[in-house]
């Protein structure tokens, strides 16, 4: 594992914020739990004196002043390399610091069907009713009929509306085409606050699912005012068979134990990482199985059909507020069709698959696949966080 690629240059440049579980002996006020951290020049620093949560930090207009002052209240936790090693679930020592997902009380939102390639796969899932055996034939029919016609279509445009009417006449209109080229994006709640897993953890797929995949995505860090202040990487683990059977199963397809991975850290916007960098980011995916299976693919933010700002504006408006801010999965081009076993059955995960999602300026998010009922249960929720915060304040 090349650690200088997990956090590019070991955070020698850029502003890197996240969360780290810190044991009692090293913890702020000796209260073990999730501490807000700043990673700089290969060292992890504790920001607990200033911030109880990363939500509090991203919504603070003055957090950069805290980082730019020499302050004895910002204490060193450990070297980043040590923490990265201990963050891998296989050799984790609970008595040493390890990374958590960088988000906490922020809402975890996602936009789907934001790339044409994945849009077509969603239509195929729907037509196949979640049966991967039918997907190959339907894929050929769909792509030959409408595939090329969707490229360079701006969602909600006059051209898109005319195309919508043509497709309806052809009898192939779909709810996925509606959100793919219509005026309103698909926006859904991917997971719950505090439920995401981080770098090195196991992600979960439901034991009843036989057709599922990772979705490598850029994840925006957004304030409660709707300002994009940073980004990270995410894995929107998806049960294709569940969603294909019915769109009303989207919640089950998307939100299970360990189905949301975010990390390794937030890279905040600054002079080294701009909105242009974010909009042109290339996201790579590698899946390596114990059976020798290897799949590599990539997703290009430059091909997204709605800009990051447009997606944020569809999430937060006068109609819906997020007082803690939110993180937003932007969608993916990745929709694997490579057979993994029986011909025509396409791709699905197997236990112990290693999933590596990477981008040159955002680092690497590495996780391993297991069943949702076999990985650690989600136990640290809002009540636990409130209790933890009060203890650190000396109230309890």
From TrEMBL:
Keywords: Hydrolase, Metal-binding. InterPro entries: FAH (IPR051121), Fumarylacetoacetase-like_C (IPR011234), Fumarylacetoacetase_C_sf (IPR036663). Residues 226-369 form the Fumarylacetoacetase-like C-terminal domain. The keyword Metal-binding applies. GO terms for molecular function: hydrolase activity. SUPFAM superfamilies: FAH (SSF56529). Belongs to the FAH family. PANTHER family: 2-DEHYDRO-3-DEOXY-D-ARABINONATE DEHYDRATASE (PTHR42796:SF7), FUMARYLACETOACETATE HYDROLASE DOMAIN-CONTAINING PROTEIN 2A-RELATED (PTHR42796). This is Fumarylacetoacetate hydrolase family protein. The lineage of its organism: Bacteria, Pseudomonadati, Bacteroidota, Flavobacteriia, Flavobacteriales.
């Amino acid at each position: 594992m090349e650690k200088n690629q997990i956090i590019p240059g070991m955070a020698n440049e850029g502003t890197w914020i996240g969360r780290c579980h810190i044991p009692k002996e090293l913890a702020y006020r000796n209260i073990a739990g999730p501490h807000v951290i700043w990673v700089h020049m290969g060292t992890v620093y504790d920001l607990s004196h200033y911030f109880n949560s990363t939500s509090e930090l991203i919504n603070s207009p003055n957090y950069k002043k805290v980082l730019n002052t020499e302050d004895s209240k910002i204490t060193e936790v450990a070297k980043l390399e040590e923490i990265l090693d201990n963050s891998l679930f296989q050799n984790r020592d609970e008595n040493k610091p390890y990374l958590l997902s960088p988000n906490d009380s922020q809402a975890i939102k996602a936009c789907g069907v934001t790339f044409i390639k994945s849009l077509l796969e969603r239509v195929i899932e729907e037509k196949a009713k979640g049966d991967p055996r039918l997907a190959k034939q339907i894929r050929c029919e769909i792509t030959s009929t409408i595939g090329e016609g969707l490229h360079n279509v701006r969602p909600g445009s006059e051209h898109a509306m005319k195309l919508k009417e043509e497709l309806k006449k052809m009898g192939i209109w779909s709810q996925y085409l509606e959100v793919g080229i219509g005026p309103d994006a698909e926006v859904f709640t991917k997971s719950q606050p505090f439920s995401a897993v981080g770098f090195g953890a196991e992600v979960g797929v439901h034991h009843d699912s036989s057709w599922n995949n990772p979705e490598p995505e850029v994840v925006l860090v957004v304030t409660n005012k709707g300002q994009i202040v940073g980004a990270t990487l995410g894995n929107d683990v998806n049960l294709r068979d569940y969603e294909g059977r019915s769109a009303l199963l989207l919640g089950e397809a998307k939100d299970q134990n360990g189905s949301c991975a975010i990390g390794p850290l937030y890279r905040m916007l600054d002079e080294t990482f701009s909105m242009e960098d974010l909009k042109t980011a290339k996201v790579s995916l590698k899946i390596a199985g114990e059976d020798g299976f290897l799949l590599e693919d990539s997703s290009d933010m430059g091909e997204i059909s709605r800009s990051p700002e447009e997606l944020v504006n569809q999430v937060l408006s006068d109609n819906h507020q997020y007082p803690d801010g939110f993180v937003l999965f932007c969608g993916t081009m990745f929709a694997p069709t490579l057979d993994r076993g029986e011909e025509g059955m396409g791709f699905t995960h197997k236990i112990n698959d290693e999933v590596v999602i990477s981008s040159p300026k955002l680092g690497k998010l590495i996780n391993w696949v297991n069943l949702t009922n076999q990985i650690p249960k989600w136990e640290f929720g809002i009540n636990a966080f409130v209790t933890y915060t009060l203890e650190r304040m000396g109230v309890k």
